[in-house]
Amino acid sequence: MYEIDRSGQLIWQHADPDCSHDADRLTNGHTLYVYGNHDVKGDACVKEVDTGGNLIWSWNPLDHYDRSPYSEVDYQ
């Protein structure tokens, strides 16, 4: 994931091979993004990293939705 200014200069980057989409810069300078691009159950989650790329927070939907009726959904 890259942040590039209008003149083409690299401002910030973070390497996460499973970053899929929807990266947003928060007011505290951290970046929030959706992780997981394999479309399998348990793959997608949300991560927050600081300006140095250190994991600050993450949310995994299976921690909350791996029960009926959601657990019966076929993701294949």
Concise overview:
By secondary structure, the protein is mainly beta. The protein has one helix at about 60-65, and strands at about 1-5, 10-15, 20-25, 30-35, 45-50, 55-60. Strands 3-4-5-6 form a 4-stranded antiparallel β-sheet, with no helix packed on it. The chain has a two-stranded antiparallel sheet with strand order 1-2.
What does this structure look like?
The chain is mainly β. It is built from 1 helix and 6 strands. The strands form 2 sheets. Strands 3-4-5-6 form a 4-stranded antiparallel β-sheet, with no helix packed on it. The chain has a two-stranded antiparallel ribbon with strand order 1-2. A hairpin with a 5-residue loop joins strand 5 and strand 6.
Number of helices: 1
**Which regions are unreliable across 5 or more consecutive residues at pLDDT < 50?**
none
Strand content: 35-45%
Count of individual beta strands: 6
**Largest sheet descriptor:** 4 strands, antiparallel
Report strand order across the widest sheet: 3-4-5-6
> In angstroms, what is the radius of gyration?
15 Å
Overall mean pLDDT stands at 82
In one word, what is the shape? elongated
Supply the helix-strand structural class: mainly beta
What series of H and E elements makes up the topology?
Answer: EEEEEEH
Percent helix: under 10%
Distance between the termini: 27 Å
Could you give the topology of this structure?
Blueprint: E1 2-4, E2 10-13, E3 19-25, E4 31-35, E5 45-49, E6 55-59, H1 62-65
Antiparallel strand pairs: 1-2, 3-4, 4-5, 5-6
Characteristic terms for this protein:
mainly beta, single chain, two-stranded antiparallel ribbon, 76 residues
